[in-house]
Amino acid sequence: MAEPARRAEAKPETSSRSVLRRFLRVAGPGIITGGAENDPAGVTTYATVGATTGYSQLWLLLLATPLLIIVQGLAARIGSVTKLGFAELIRNEFGRPAAIVLASLVVIANVATIGADLVAMAAVLQLLTHLPLTVFVVPLMVVLGYITIFQDYKTVQRLLLWVVLAFLAYIVAGILAHPDWSQVLRSTVIPPIRLKVTYFLGAIGLLGTTIQAYLLYFQSEGEREERRGTTHSSERYIDIASGMITSNVVAYFIIISTASTLFSHHQAIHGTADVARSLTPVAGSFATVLFSIGILGAGLLGVPVLAISTGYILAGTLGWRTGLGRQAYSAPGFYTVIALSLLAGVELANSHVNPITALFYSQVLSGLVTPPHLVCLVLLASRRRVMGAFVATPWERLGGWIAAGVMTISVAALVFALLA
Amino acid sequence: MAGTDVLKQWWLKALLGEEMSAHPVFDRNIEVKVDQDVVTLSGEVESAEEREQLEQEARSIGLIQSVVNRLKVQSGHRPERLQTVIAIFPDDRAAELASQMIAGWKLHGANVPDLVTDVEPAEKCLHELARKAELPIADVQPYIDHVREGKTLLIDRVPEEDAFRVISAFEGTEASGIHTLPPEPEPALMD
User: Fold this and answer.
1) What residues pair up with B43 in beta bridges, in sequence order?
2) Of the candidates A6, A155, A323, which has its C-beta nearest B168's C-beta?
3) Containing H/E element for B109?
């Protein structure tokens, strides 16, 4: 159909476009999961950590980044080797009851986070438009539901990739907050541990929002959606490493922005919009608008990933058909779970739970359910029966166990701090 | 959003016979022929994944009934590993139906999945597959136990990239469990 001569005209490409195309080919679930980590709940957790503990937990992000790359890499590895999702593998290898218990815990945490995210997005729209918050919750759910249920996987993925750009707003907001860079650097490399409940709550919230169980499900299923087998391991690691590093750099700047403004001026946070609003006196109204745009972008990325993950988790555990590549009629259980998780989130958002409390504790809950998932993940990736010659390397296994250990110690430290 | 629009525009133009430029993401020229409501894709692509994705994109435009995918994976590219997919069925009737469906869909050339109802053939087949996947024989014993309990296995050894499609196809059947053996470490050059 296309004439050779006319084809030839189309061949020359500028190198920047070519690089972008190559990146778009490699970009997949790693970039998306990295971006989804910084959903409004994540942003608020990081902002709260900055506002309540200053720069003192920046070192945790430095520690969490390689661990995050390793655990997401393990999740991707089990997906690409077995061609099955994390939920199916847990059911196959550890039994249906264990799979149901683990899945239920993550689903509860996911629904709580969806509700909290919707409230956060509505609160920011309220800040920008001065209309009541409740006006926005249902329309937001409709938009997010449309994107998630009625668009195919590739379309959703490409849309989400562009939304990641909104996160640059946080980096600019962090710089506008004029931080004390020498103190920032010191706190990044030297852990200033404090024996206070707020410190441990912040630490588990931060780790809980960085290393999350639902992202493990999303990553392994994402490899299936991408149909990436064992011959694509280099693409997989570029995708994951770029996603996780970007995500944690953004988190780093969110903490810096609130530590430099709210912590320094002893201001408390009572709502997500407060974070954005309170930046105005010290960092200018532009910082507030940027932060608000970041929250909206974060919700557009994070809520679909949460809802889709919930679908993967429940459908995979119960043996239903899954996959964004399928039409809704072909995987009704999967899409029904996605729709119900969004509706449950709306119900939660319309209840009278304090949004900042819901956001923060949903992340703490995520932190609590993550250690058993990490243990299952490392066991699966180490199991020769499952992985054959593609079993995780000793370094990957060590990294996975360290991640599981760090998360378990954080949970234990939190319980100890609450009881003391 | 802009990226999605560009892709949709490209496909719409390609279906109308107006598109002459390279595909916006894969940066390669593919031929798109339309005959009534059937679209035929041809040309060379870099991987089976790319071949699959282009077919999915063509389908997602929604103006056509079916897509004939004649895209060829460039020779000299990554050889594919083989992998075994095992689906467990409550009886041989359900397994037979699934086998016919998969054979009809021509997911991977002329291959037809093996239907295993007796212990002895199950042992012979699975021991051989375990050897190819470099697994101890004990690791496939649970599947043989299923046969011993009266269940039927549908065993499909396919190129790794096709394993995704076979699993998706099995998910729509009465299979009570879907498992895979790890990919065979030695890659095989496929047709």
Assistant:
1) B71
2) A323
3) none
> Mind listing the domains of chain B with CATH numbers?
2-73 (3.30.1340), 82-180 (no CATH)
Task: Give the model's pLDDT for residue A10.
Answer: 38
In chain B, residues with a C-beta closer than 8 Å to the C-beta of A88 are 178
Q: What gap in Å lies between CA A44 and CA A57, rounded to an integer?
A: 15
The CA distance from A223 to A74, in Å, is 11
Q: Return the residue matching tokens 């991408």.
A: A226
How many Å apart are CA B125 and CA B191, to the nearest integer? 24
According to the model, what pLDDT value does residue B190 have? 45
Quick check: is A126 in a domain?
yes
pLDDT (mean) for A219-223: 87
Which residues contact residue A304 at a Cβ distance below 8 angstroms, ignoring those fewer than 6 apart?
A144, A147, A148, A156, A160
What is the DSSP track for A199-224? HHHHHHHHHHHHS-HHHHHHHHHHHH
pLDDT for the residue A2:
34
- Is A10 contained in some domain? no
pLDDT at A261 over 70: yes
Cα–chain center distance at B71: 15
* pLDDT tops 60 at residue A192: yes
Contact A264, A116 (CB under 8 A): no
CB within 8 Å: A232 and B49? yes
Backbone angles phi, psi at B122, to 5 degrees: -60, -45
Which of B52, B56, B81 minimises the CB distance to A230?
Answer: B81
Q: Is A230 in Cβ contact with B29 (below 8 Å)? A: no
**Nearest-CA distance from A88 to chain B in Å?**
9
The rounded distance, in Å, linking the Cα atoms of A253 and A249 is 6
- Quick check: A232 contacting B, CB < 8 Å? yes
Range of the domain at A225: 36-419
Residues A69, B99: Cα–Cα separation, whole Å:
40
Residue A112, token pair as written in the block: 């709580």
The pTM for the full model equals: 0.78
pLDDT for the residue numbered A91: 93
Half-sphere exposure of A156 (CA within 13 A, CB side): 27
Identify which of B144, B105, B152, B110 has the alpha carbon closest to the alpha carbon of residue B127: B144
Beta-carbon neighbour count of residue B123 at 10 Å?
18
Q: Name, of A25-39, A75-89, A404-418, the range with top average pLDDT.
A: A75-89
CATH number of the domain residue A182 falls in: 1.10.4160.10
The DSSP element (H or E) to which B110 belongs, if any, is none
Is pLDDT larger for residue A62 or for residue A368? A62
Q: Tell me the two tokens of residue A177.
A: 């907050």
Gap between the Cα atoms of A338 and A218, Å rounded: 13
Number of domains in chain A: 1
State how far the Cα of B165 lies from the Cα of B83, in Å rounded to an integer: 12
Q: What is the pLDDT along chain B (191 residues), one digit of tens a residue?
A: 445 667 777 887 777 777 566 777 666 667 888 877 778 888 877 776 677 778 878 877 776 767 777 787 775 555 678 899 999 999 889 899 888 877 766 565 556 788 999 999 999 999 999 999 999 999 999 999 999 999 999 998 888 888 888 888 888 788 888 999 999 987 664 44
Torsion of CA B181, B186, B189, B191, to 10 degrees: -10
Rounded-to-integer distance, Cα B188 and Cα A192, Å: 54
